[in-house]
Amino acid sequence: MQTFIYFFLPDFCSAKINVGFAFDGSSQTGKENFETTINFAANVSKHFTIDTNETWIFLKYPNQKRVFKTKSDLYALAPEFEPFPNATDVHLGATLDAIRKQFSGESSQREAVNVVILITSHKSVDDIAIPAAWLKTSNVTSFALGIGSHYSGGQLKEIASDPDSEFFIGLSAWSGLNEYFAKTIAKKICQGW
Length: 193
Description:
By secondary structure, the chain is α/β, with parallel strands linked by helices. The chain has helices spanning 31-45, 71-75, 92-104, 129-137, 153-159, 164-167, 179-191; strands spanning 17-23, 56-61, 64-68, 113-122, 141-150, 168-171. The longest helix has 15 residues, at 31-45. The chain starts with 16 loop residues before the first strand and ends with a helix. Residues 1-9 have low confidence and may be disordered.
């Protein structure tokens, strides 16, 4: 009798995409939840072909910017060793502006689709209107994820692409950023093109 071994590999999306993850990195988030967001970014990313000619992954949070252009770079990401910013306040406007500069600068792929996944648990203290308007007028696909009960739904809906029902997502707890949800977001991104 023959025995068959099946290997279940993640579904890979091969497309030329810049995927930017933007986190608030504030003390309100906490180190453990910050590590959860880093894990979530890695779980979403594993569904893409990360390569210099395919998908690039960007992580942006206060005082940090990381770019992953290969799978081996991404596999080296260790959430527990990422420096927790522990910022006093939430500055989503500044974080999104840094993503804008990243997508507009020399360090991102030209002629690639741009996607932002913003994750926060609290209301931003700075202005988000200008970076939110830039996202929409630049055809950036923006997912805005609010976790818990202290974020501003109005701010996140302003940031999210339209329709809000597709791109603004409220989660009651950090445990919602699990592998199943990561795969769901990856599929939504990939099916967009």
